[in-house]
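WARN retry 2 of 3 for item q-0093 after timeout on previous attempt; input resubmitted unchanged.
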Amino acid sequence: MLFAPDPILPAWFVLPLAVLTMIVVGFHIQWMHRVSMPGSRRRIRTASNMVSLLAIPLFATGFGLISPGDHRLFVGVWFLAMSLLGIIILLAGIDMLNSFRLHAAERRHLRSQIRRLESEFKTLMAERQHSS
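OK item q-0093 returned
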């Protein structure tokens, strides 16, 4: 089993799943460009999806086309696939940190709006008391 002459999974199973997954990722990229979101978030997620579009065929190749018996090619494909997966995980971490940054900026903006509205409210109340 360790150096099997056949791939890990049959190609008839792996390849349609890989194609379907790539189609879903492609639709996700198109959807992201239609909805309103911060540019930094769109750029990070687009990069992640592009790396995914490179990784999916490598994973499909590693699972369904190359046998473990072809040592060099098998290890090379899996090394590249896992490297791309590491990049995807790194981009997910960057996206998370960016979300924290965006959230903090939105909170600062909301706090300044609340302070401004409180000030306006106090001014209006003072004017109302003086006119009465």
